Amino acid sequence: MKNAAQVNPIYRKRLWVHRIGITLSFLAMAIGIFFLMWILLTLLVKGAGALSIAMFTQTTPAPGDDGGGLMNAIVGSLLMVGTATAISTPIGILAGIYLAEYGEESWFAQTTRFVTDIMLSAPSIVIGLFVYALYVANVKHFSGWAGSFAISLIAIPVVVRTTDNMLNLVPTSLREAAFALGAPRWKVATMVRLRAVKAGVMTGVLLALARISGETAPLLFTALNNQFFSANMNAPMANLPVVIYQFAMSPYDNWRALAWGGALIVTFSVLGLNILSRTLFHQKTQN
């Protein structure tokens, strides 16, 4: 026998609305997963055939040549992404600590948070043009340093916001206990609050690293490209995103195959970084 709630028209209407909402949400999730798996499967099918030892040991081939690899592009990307991470991590963490400690007390902190939010949504090509006008146009040449500066400007806001949000999750009672023991404010911020959320902060660093690993537009205006192997950061430097872009648009089958292989490397590297970051954060919350 049905109870009063089940025959109530308002209850039945809300139940149908709930079912429709759940169905639409499931369909949206299924469509997203379908296209994601389609992209990954396409990369695997077309990119796996290009993977070889030569891809990691030989430089990019000349137009029309067979063989070759992406060693110079891989090394260039590692150098620039590593330099950008070394620049953005301390700046982002220190800025996040400042915002968490003085965000409600200082107009400068509020302005910094506003500018950070703008930079998070700024198109990467605009940042590339900014570094080109500020640095490349003045030194009169493209370089790996310019590319590192450009992508570090993309990574800094991610680290700042993540650090700020993580520090604000620390219970107030923990801070008050540290203050009651006579600890100065800078020590409470670095030794108590930051240590309590270090896994979350590392997650932000890894997400920023994943974000800048596949950026192409800023590097087109700053690092450009280099067909040959070079570890000189003060000269044009090869990098995977730009090489993939140029090779994918070329008429040469060998170049297009290498582009698929490079796309596979970048995609699964970014995917691995995202999985690692979420695993670290999940382990921290379980503890």
Keywords for this structure?
single chain, mainly alpha, about 290 residues
Indicate the overall shape: globular
Based on secondary structure, the structural category is mainly alpha
- Unreliable stretches: none
Strand content: under 5%
Percent range of helical residues: over 70%
Largest sheet: none
Radius of gyration: 24 Å
Overall average pLDDT: 88
Number of helices: 13
Gap from first CA to last CA: 47 Å
Q: Give me the count of strands.
A: 0
Explain what the structure shows.
The chain is mainly alpha-helical and 287 residues long. The protein has 13 helices and no strands. The mean pLDDT is 88.
Topology:
Elements: H1 4-7, H2 9-47, H3 53-57, H4 71-102, H5 107-121, H6 124-139, H7 144-167, H8 172-180, H9 185-196, H10 198-213, H11 217-220, H12 240-248, H13 253-286
Helix pairs in contact: 2-13, 4-7, 4-10, 5-7, 6-7, 7-10, 8-9, 10-13, 12-13
Short description:
The chain is mostly helical. Helices cover 76% and strands 0% of the residues.
